[in-house]
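Protein: Phosphoglycolate phosphatase
Species: Sporothrix epigloea
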Amino acid sequence: MAINTILFDCDNTLVLSEELAFEGCADLLNEICATKGVSPAPNFTGATLITEFVGQNFRGMLNSLQKRYGFPLTDEETNDYVLREEDVVIAKLKQYLVPCVGAEPQLEALQKDGSHLLAVVSSSALRRVKASIEKVGFDRFFAGDHVYSAATSLPTPTSKPDPAIYLHAMKELGKTASECVAVEDSRSGTLSATRAQITTIGYVGPYPEEKRAEMEKVLRDAGAKVIMQSWDEFPAKLAEVGTQ
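Structure follows.
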């Protein structure tokens, strides 16, 4: 069956949000570790978080930290911290967020052509994803509110690389994996899409030039069929995966 649906990750795929988001949540994670008596204190920064947790949502980070440092969080504590993180990050995004270079003209061309259904499939909380795409004016490209969040849209919150959010999005859209292509910039996101049997385009544009070769291998190893260095390459990469 021909590809007729494109499922876009949001953070650092459509918008340059990862660095802002990790800056926003580093202080909160340090506070949690201090409250739970973690010693020595990890002293997270935005830069260290993006290295360790790119592609995960905040709930996923909390789960990882509990396992690493051996402290428990109640469901009430977890939900409270998740909401606090959302508020901090959304405030930063509303102030500073910009689109990924070259994404807007490609979305405009897709919308004008009209041959593909467009949707956003993210690990991040729905409030954050919507705030992000609204800030840069991309909400106009996703008709019918086709925005899905692993943290919010599912009966049980999860995070990529769990494929649940991609499976949910396809069910809601009435599409099969053979009709879809995903665009992802992280290992966890690529694994999420490929575990849902979706052909995936890996995007390395947001990474520093010296890290792109490394990330290309990471995304290919996670199952990406082709790699896109910049959004200018998108039409050719979409055509390439459509013939595979």
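Remarks: The mean pLDDT is 93.
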